[in-house]
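Q: Hi! First time asking for a complex rather than a single chain. Here are the components, and I think there are two in total. Is that enough to go on?
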Amino acid sequence: MTIRTLLQFNFKYYRRHTLLALLCLTGISLGVGIVVAVELINDSALSSFESSVDFLSGRATNSIISTFGRIDEKHFQEIWTNRRVTAASPIVDVIANTLETDSEPIRFLGVDPFLDAPFRGWTPQLSGKDDLAAFFAGDPPGAFLSSDLMKRFNLKVGESLTALDAGLEKKIRILGPLTEDSSGGLGENIAVMDISSAQEVFGRIGRLDRIDLLVEGSVSDAFPALPPGLKITDANSRKSTLTAMLYSFQLNLAAMSLIALFVGVFLIYNFSMFSVLSRRQDMSLLLTLGCDSRSLVLAFMIESVVLGALGSLAGVIFGYSIAAYSVGKVSSTISQLYFLVNNLNVGLSLRILGIGVAVGFVATAVGVTLPALEVAVTPPVLGLKRQSIEDRTKSARAYLFMGGAAFFIFSCLSVWASRNSIFWGFASAFGMTTAFALFTPGLLSPFTHYLGVVFKKSHRLLDAFLAARNIGASLSRTSIAVAALAVALSMTIGVDTMIFSFRTSVYSWLEDALKGDLYISPDTTKWDHPLPETLIKKVEADPRLDSIERYLALDVYLQGRPVKLRVIEPEILEKKARFKFVGGEESHKAWSQIIKGGVFISEPLAFKFNLKVGDFLTLDSPDGPKNFPVVAITRDYSSDQGTIQMDRSVYISIWKDDRVQSIALFLKPGASIEDVRKSVAALFKGLERTIVSNHEMRERVLSIFDKTFAPTATLKGVSLLVALLGIATAMMAILLERSKEIRVLGYLGLTPTEIGKMNVYQGLIMGVASFLIAAMCGLLLTYIIVYAINYRSFGWTIDISVNKWIFVETLGLTMAACFVSSLYPSFKLMRASSAASIKEE
Amino acid sequence: MDPLIRLVDVKKCYSSGPTCEIFPLAGVSLDMFQGDRVILLGKSGSGKSTFLNIVGGVDSPTEGRVFFDGREITRMSSQDMAYFRRKEVGFIFQSFNLFPTLTVGENVTLPLDLLGIRDYSRAHELLNETGLNGYWKKFPEALSGGEQQRVAIARALVKGPRLILADEPTGNLDQETGNGILNLIDKICRESDATLIMVTHSPDALWMAPRRYRLKSGVLLEEHYTN
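A: Yes, that's all I need. Here is the structure of the assembled complex.
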């Protein structure tokens, strides 16, 4: 029998079972799709960000930045006149929202157009004296915007743009578009202004954010010594520094990707294996008729290549769509937590295409070839008996269970090993899901048996009794489908419980840390927008206030890595807030020591820099490096880079910087929060946007938290969908293979409705079994994610909180989805049973 | 006395287009009374199983009417036909068709469960009668062909149906075991006064019924034999 004949035989099978063929292809493509989507999101975040850094760096060979967030502009003269410097451009780089562009922030770049010309092509083409005057000394100051931004928001030349600086409105006149070439075609939201206008508008008089340089020869020769706190860098090291900030975020996505890969491969295997197993008898018959086993296996391998190719192709398209849908949420999360990225572009690279196709091909090939090999080596007479594979599955249960136990032990050991490398954290999660997947046949068999006994004893649920027994009887099909669904559900439960625990921990931290009755400008601290002094003085003068706490957050460098420096007022916070100290220090001692020049550090900082109470850390200052003793380690979820908290008066005395980005207002007893809010908001136009109550402040933080985990929800949904397709396929398999038994039920007097109900019960029981396995596995996964993955990558402690509603919701969703999955097979069954007749051999 | 089963000019045709191409039943009429026994003979594909399915309410005729105890089953909905089979008809198949997922006891009591009868004493009695006492918790795969057919007979008769339809019940068994099965069907039908229609190819089974019919070209021809 030729390969061609066998392939034609296989093709005819798919033509006869179009729906099954479609389900199989959908399963493969969804599995590939999940993996491709995660990889695309990960890649696009990084590459968009890198392109943005390259674009903004222009032709600069190097840049000078400050290790404590700002450069005194007096240093520019000294650098510019350095003989080895061919060109130097001072830059003010501010990110701000505007009323006209709604939620899309704009990067305002203050440049000197003459000094900047050698670096970038965006120097605006000033057409005449008027333009020149408007750019350099316009009132309101003028800016050129990227043409794409103007098009998208229908902004016109001559109109005003209202930038929000610490919530206060600042008018900027639109002078015209930057050319497509000069704005890089990156979709960046850029506004180019004169540097002195930018300094004035955004409260940065006398300071620069960086100085771009064109340097001849070696940089170290050109700058043997720089003023204290300044650091020379280049685009590549900026990229790697900022990419390092994304490490934890990407690790999170990578974890999802790995789990998705596992679920994807498992399900593709499930679908492919099913497509072969349902032809097991045909294959044995072909062997009986003289087909040689090598040709048979080869034919199935060729089939797997075709299936893998079609499924992978569809999967890549599907993954691309998912990524395109989710990328907006991801870019918003990165912008909120790390740095501004505009309009992430989803680009399919050869690497991702390769990963997607490899996953599709390998999983399909294994899924098709293994069962084909099994049939090829089985004597045809056994293969012809449907029961023989069930017998084999039954006898394999014990071995599978033992394999599961081995993986379980491996997973526990990996948790212990994760203290050395995060790799073991992932290995542990993988081991745990594999363990429960292998436990499934061993658990499903007694579960359905005893469930059947209960239904039988109830005398009412005969259809449910038969359904339970059918599942137990088709263990070779049902256990794989149940295991696949259980893996997807356990991932859902594990990740959801982790997110809930994390959210609860963050909420409890917010409750303790945020005690102000009102807050001003909390949103813009990440963009360093100082509040005007006049505003603070006016607010302070309000007799209804008990006290105010001034707050400043800066990006500083610790051992060359960016961390957050938070400048606080300990005298007020000691009385008003409840900090959670986790380093074993006494609260009152810690507060008294911070006033004397000590610092509090957050858990992630202590973890990443291996610092303990009593250690010293060194920060750059205008007077050179300064050492600060660590006096406490605090529970703090505000930044995964880590934070240092310092007394305001200590900070001012060293850095000579008394700016304030945010203030907390503590009211006297009896004062009305709403009244104070209204009167404070009336002090400056636009302040009502940034003055928020304690409750609103917490909600804002939590909404950022929720956004961070938004992509997880999309992936979770897709994994669940794939797993449910698995259930539908398994039920179709049972329907095909047990059609005769089902017809006998019709002869015995089961009505078509009862037969349909039996099938629905089958889906529901499989759903319940999957849920029960997933509940156990999911809880263990939560512990692994929290202690072996999250702690190892972020360094913060999360108190595990179990939310019963996660379980109720997952069960409800599973039951609803299993019900829907079972409808089509049930409908087919009801139609078949009404015209039932048994063809006797 | 009214007949228990009445078939009036029953026709069944199978077609792949608008016109009938195959007529397994081309106008069959028959009356059978309570306790009657009929043997149905015919070549493979002559329509014997179709006849049983139509009488048993599993299939519907293309034309003609079928009555059971005065009720026209050909006018029943699929739901009512199922209730009719549940209560009145016991099927015995050539390949036993036991549920491999259910124990012997569960297979036999399934028709009682369907009728909502919680008293399984009749099931125990029948298993005793068929010599399968002690097999209650065994699965069908552990039984021989003859034992499986005895379980199938117990399952068909446990609810006390008025009509028993047997489709070559000894076709998969050796002669000795087959004879044992025929004796068992005869004994139980006699005790319960059930009406029996049995399709068979086996000459050993002809003693079971005085009335024998042969289906030929869709027509039912009565045959007379002398022992």
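A: The CA atoms of residues 3 and 33 of chain B lie 4 Å apart. Let me know if you'd like any chain examined more closely.
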